[in-house]
Amino acid sequence: MEELLRRSEKLTTVGQLAAGVAHEIRNPLTTLKGFLQLQQRSLQVNLRHTDIMMSELERINLIVSEFLILAKPQAVHFQTKDIRYILGDVISLLDSQAHLLGIEFNPSFSQETLLIFCEENQLKQVFINLFKNAMEAMPEGGVVHLHTWRGDKRSVVIQIRDEGCGIPKDILAKIGEPFFTSKETGTGLGLMVSQRIIESHKGTLDIESELNQGTTITLMLPMVAVRK
Ligand code: ADP
Ligand code: MG
């Protein structure tokens, strides 16, 4: 965790990040340009090449949209919300996709109201990122366990546990670094963006992982007292 924080602090300047994004986007752009030139010269369309071009375009699209979540000066609108409803919304959003992949969500929510002060869309983005990682870690299917409860010191705890591949120790150290990914089509931005959003909510994000056993992500957010 300290490692994660230290790394993200090293990269706080937007300039450094922007340079990284530019670099990551230039690679697929170069590929796209190359294939387009080939097709121009031969005056015919090679379907294998257009497939590669499509996936490179998709990659640029993903990188840009994940990055925009951070960079966009979008209307940030903090409101008091019950975390259980936010989680419920995200689960319904992903449920049918998960079902197709043989993945089940197993939510267990506290009975009591758990209010937090948040930018709802940003928090939803965090949960989407974390659930997607959990799903991607279980290509054979499995269960994503989701708990939320009232923690110590006026906090709300949200725990997401998968039964997936887990994270090797050497890789764990690199997690949260922008563009670090072990996936063929990953962007390596999901966790970094999530970490930033949680920090902007004055919360913490903790990762524990056991190889071939699964990964547990624990989020803590300040709780808003219920007015009686
Ligand atoms: P991406 O998903 O695009 O690769 P992320 O920032 O979301 O980028 O994750 C970075 C890396 O962290 C992943 O490529 C993967 O190696 C590892 N990782 C994250 N979450 C999990 C998880 N639940 N189980 C196993 N590995 C994970
Ligand atoms: Mg991800």
Strand and helix map with partners:
Elements: H1 2-10, H2 14-42, H3 47-71, E1 78-82, H4 83-100, E2 103-109, E3 115-119, H5 120-136, E4 142-151, E5 155-161, H6 169-172, H7 190-200, E6 204-210, E7 214-222
Parallel strand pairs: 2-4
Antiparallel strand pairs: 1-3, 4-5, 5-7, 6-7
Helix pairs in contact: 2-3, 3-7, 4-5, 5-7
The structure holds adenosine-5'-diphosphate (ADP) and magnesium ion (MG).
Adenosine-5'-diphosphate is lined by residues 129, 133-134, 137, 162, 164-167, 171, 175, 180-183, 186-192, 215.
Overall outline: elongated
Reported for the largest beta sheet, the result is: 5 strands, mixed
User: What are the distinct ligands in this entry?
Assistant: adenosine-5'-diphosphate, magnesium ion
Order of helices and strands: HHHEHEEHEEHHEE
Protein name: histidine kinase
Subcellular location: Cell membrane
